[in-house]
Amino acid sequence: MFTDIQTPQKKLSKDIVKVTIISELISNSIGFIVLGVLFYLDDRFSWKDWIGWILIAITVIAILAAVWSTLIRPFLLYKYTRYHVDEEFLQLKTGALNETHELVPMTKIQAVETNQGPIMRKYGLYSISIETMGSSHAISGLQRDVAMELRNKIAHYAKIKEVES
Amino acid sequence: MMKPKRYHPLLMLFDVWGFVKNVFFLVIILFVLNYQSQSFLFKYGRYAFYLYTVITFIYIISKWLTQKYKLGDTAFHLYKGVFTKKEQTIPYAKIQNVNRHISVFHRIFKMTSIHFETAMSGEDTTIKFNVISLQEADKMEKVIEQGTQHDRELDDHDFGQDKLERQNDIDVEEHKEVPDEVSTLKTNAQSGRQNRVIHFNPTKRDVLKASFTSLSFLVLVPILVSLYFQLDDFFDLDERAEGLISIILSAWWLIVVIIVALVITSIIFGIVRVYLKYGKYEISSDEERVYITQGVIDERSFSISKQNVQAVEITQSLIKRLLGIVEVKLISAGNLKIDDDDLKISSLYPFLPEKRAYEMIAEILPSYEITEQMSKLPKKALWVRLLRPIWFIVLVSVALFYFQPAIWGLEQAWWIGLVLLIVVIYSFVILGYKNTKYTINDHFIQIKKGGMVTSHIVTKRDKIIEVKVFRSFLQRKLGIASFEIVNRANPVRHTELDDIPVAMAGSVYTWYMDRTKEIEIE
C-alpha cells in the first residue's frame, strides 16, 4: 500500500463479476469460433506448414487469456476497484497486480455520463464515464440508484469552476 | 462602445496573394509548359482553372463584405456567414496567448497579422486577423488586457482570494476604468511599450554559437536536393546533370574546388539562415505579460500573460549539454503556431547560456522558483530499468539466432547487430537513469528526465489538472512507484516519472490534494 494515500472505500456492485464473466465468455467464444474456422480452412486448403504452427500458438495463448479473463480477472476487478467522490476530488483506485491511483479535481471535470450495455441492463447495472480536459475515466458496474446519485453528485460538484489562468 | 467593424480591406489582397502562391505551380503547368497541348486534361483543366479563379474572387470579396468584428468590454464578437449568419462571442479571459506574424507582404504595407489563441476544443478556436494595422493590433491587445483584468478584479472583489497568483502589484486605480475612448487607448498602448523590460538580445557570438549547435550548415544540401527534384518535374534535368557530372569527375582539382565551395557556401548559408531567424530576437516582459519577438525579415512574435504560463520546460540536446546551452519553452494552453508553419515561437531564445536561462526565468516569471537541489532516483530504479528491456532483447536474440541474416554478405552480421542493439539500449537506460532528477518544492514540482535530449519541466500545483500514481508488480516488490501529472497545453501534456521511492510517489498524491487551498473558485 502507498502509505500516504487514503485508499477510497466505495466498491462496485457485486453483480459486475457476473456481467464481466458473461461478456468475456461471449467475446472469447467469438474468438474461438474464428480460430475454428481458420483451422478448418487450413485443413481444407492445406495451407503452408508454418501457418498451422502459428494457429496452434495463437490457440494456446487464447486459451490462457480466456482462463485469465473469465475465471480470474472479473473477481480481481471487483475486489480491487475503489472510488471516492467528494466536493473536491474524484479518486479512483484500480488494479490488483499493477496498482493505479488517480486523482481528478472536480473543477476539471467537463462531462459526466451514464451508459449501459445489454448485459449490464439485465443486471440493472450502469457505467459512469467522466471526461476531463486531459483524459476520460470510467467507473463501470454500479447499481442504478447508486450510479444516478453519483452522476448527479459529480455533475453538481463539477459545476463549480475555478478561475482558469 | 464600438460598432461591428469590417476587417481591413487589404485582407482581400492578402487572400489573393495566398491564392496566387497556391496556384503558382498549377498556372505554370497549365499555361506555360502545356499551353500548346490540346489534350482533354489540359484543355478542360484550363477552363476549370478560370472557374476556380472566379469563384475564389467572389468568395474573397463576399467574405470581406460579410465578416465583421467588435471588441466588447470583456469579449470578442465575431460575425460571419453569407447565407447562414453566425455570431460568435469569445470572452477575453479565454485567450491564452497572442501570436503575431509580419511577413514580407505585411512589411510592404506596414501591417501585421495577429492571432488570439484560446484553449477551446473544436473549430474556430483562434481569432484571426490576418491583415491589420500595427496601431489597431496594439490597441486590441490593450483592450483585451484591460478586459481580462476588469473581469479578474470583479472576481477578486467577490472572493478576495488568489493572493498567490497575483505577485505583481497591479495599480488597481488605473485598471478600474475600462476606457472606451480610442485616444486613451492609444496612449495606454504606448505607455505599455515603455514599461517593458528587455531581458535578452542575442549578440553576434550567440548567433554564431546558435548556427553551429543547430547544425544549420548541414541544411543546404537537402534543400538543394529537394529543389533539384522539384525542378526535375518540369524540366528534364537528369540528362544534363549526367553530362555535367562526367565533366566534374574527369578532373580531380574540379572536385576539390567544388567541395570547398560547397562547404563554404553551406557554412555561410547556415549562418545567414540562423541570423534571419534568431538574429533579431528580443525577450521582454512587463508586469502582466511576456513578449518574445524573433526574425529579421519575417517577424514573428508571441506574447502570453504570465498567469497563463502552464509550465516552463528547459530542454537540452547532447551538443547543447556539452556547450552549456539550453532552450527554455513556455507552455501555453493555446496554439503556439501561427498559420500552418511548424515554427513554434513559445521558446525563449533556444540557445541560452544555462546560467543566464535560469536567471531569466526568475526575472520574467518571479512566481516561478526553480531550485537546483533535486533528488536522484534510488539505486533500485536502475536495476528495474536494466531488467525491463530484457524480454525484448531475448525476443530479438531468438529471432536473430533463428534467421541469422547476413548483411552485405557478412555472416557475423546478426550477432554484431545484436551487440550494437544491446549497447544502444543500455546506454539510453543508463543515461536516462543518470539524467533523471525531481523535486517537490512548496507548490512547485520539477521533473527532469531524458536520455540524449533532456527535458526539465517546472510547473505549479494549481496548473496541474490531474495526477496518477501507479506501480507494477515488480515495482511493488522493490518498493518503488511511478507517477504522472497532466498539464494543460496544446495538446494536453502528460509527464511521467518512473521508479521513485514509493513514499515519494504517495506524497505526490497528497501534495496534489492540498491544491484546494490555493485555487480560486469562480
TrEMBL record, chain A:
Protein's UniProt name: YdbS-like PH domain-containing protein
TM helices/strands, residue ranges: 21-41, 53-72
Pfam families: bPH_2 (PF03703)
Superkingdom classification of source: Bacteria
Keyword list, A-Z: Membrane, Transmembrane, Transmembrane helix
Limits of the YdbS-like PH domain: 78-154
TrEMBL record, chain B:
Ranges annotated as spanning the membrane: 12-35, 47-66, 212-231, 251-276, 386-407, 413-433
Occurrences of domain YdbS-like PH (ranges): 64-142, 281-358, 433-512
Pfam families noted in UniProt: bPH_2 (PF03703)
Parts forming coiled coils: none
Top-rank lineage group of the source organism: Bacteria
Protein keywords: Membrane, Transmembrane, Transmembrane helix
PANTHER family for the chain: UPF0699 TRANSMEMBRANE PROTEIN YDBS, UPF0699 TRANSMEMBRANE PROTEIN YDBT
Name of this chain's protein: Putative membrane protein
Species per Swiss-Prot/TrEMBL record: Pseudogracilibacillus auburnensis
Species lineage: Bacteria, Bacillati, Bacillota, Bacilli, Bacillales
